[in-house]
Hints:
Radius of gyration: 26 Å
Shape: globular
Strand content: under 5%
Order of helices and strands: HHEEHHHHHHHHHHHHHHHHHH
Number of helices: 20
Number of domains: 3
Amino acid sequence: MARGAPSPADLQVVRELAARGVVVTASQLESWRRAGLLPRHRRRGLGRGRESVVDVVDPVVVESAAVLARHLRQGRDRRLAVLEWFAEAGGAVKPGAVRVPEPPLAAVREAVVWVMRGTVSHRLLELARGAAGAGEEAADALYEVADRLLATRPYRGSADPALVRAALEADEDVDVPDGPDFKEVVHLVAAIGLGAQEVGGDALAEAFGAFALFGLTTEDWTQMLGAAERGESPPVDWGLLQQRANVLEPVQQASDEQLLRARTVLLGLRMFYGLYAMHALFMPDTPALAALRAKIDELGVFPILDHVIALSSSPRHFAQDLAIGLDPLFDGLYKTLMDQLTATPALLQIPGDETGAAGFMGTWTRTLREQTARTRKRADASCEEPS
């Protein structure tokens, strides 16, 4: 084979993909290989002093090339394609389909770090570190810039799905409450750079209360932090705040196994969040679904899930949520909800309906059609009323 000429194995890959309607070239395959995204074909030695040959085209090479061809476009950063590949590899395999192989996890790690470097969280962390020990002017500048950056990411608020459903069933307007003022989170940013003592317990209580984590209000946090300051309870380890604020280090230090686990956590939490939220859209209720919602309510974590778990297919959102999946807090939440799921199986089984998930989906579809018809009828009646 002439130097620089495509290998017979790569030409076979090109032909196999062309038969599927996927167009790639041998030069593209080699380019992806040089970038560390495509493995080489397995080779067999012919014996001492003789060259090795490729007996069979490696299916992993074929499937990896196919997924790259799906996600790579002219002018698009390869790291976005790697993230989409990693997300796809973690999904369920359709009947008769071939499982997508995992991308090189070193490339996944690099892509997540690249995305995280451009996030508001990382920019705020850098600002906070730069303000440390730099005087009052630097502190004022930190508050000003952080306030401006946080204002660009307003939180839509989390309407209680049960209240939304009740309002829709009663043909009433849905009252969506204003979301918490996440501008208060600027106090957490300041605490990272200036120290918690400089910011003060009251301001930090407002910041923690904005998240409504575990159902705790600003007043709850004020009482707890005040008790710690007075020595009535154990002191707060503010070093944990510093650790949690570093959005890059956990990703950079994550092992391959931890990255795979983070994806499992993320996809699981997306599922649980979706099941909770879809109650608002007339999803049939089952004992298992009711128990799952009750557990989420008991933990008080729906607002935080609503804020941090993105159902968007954007690779940038996936990267940010993947970093969240590395956090022990969310890993523990995933375990707890999986335990709940195990304790109450038959999630999509309506009591008395032996058709299982098919019956569940049929009931849901029928209910949605009925609700849509009711809404249209009400809208038509409103239009016919004399002005």
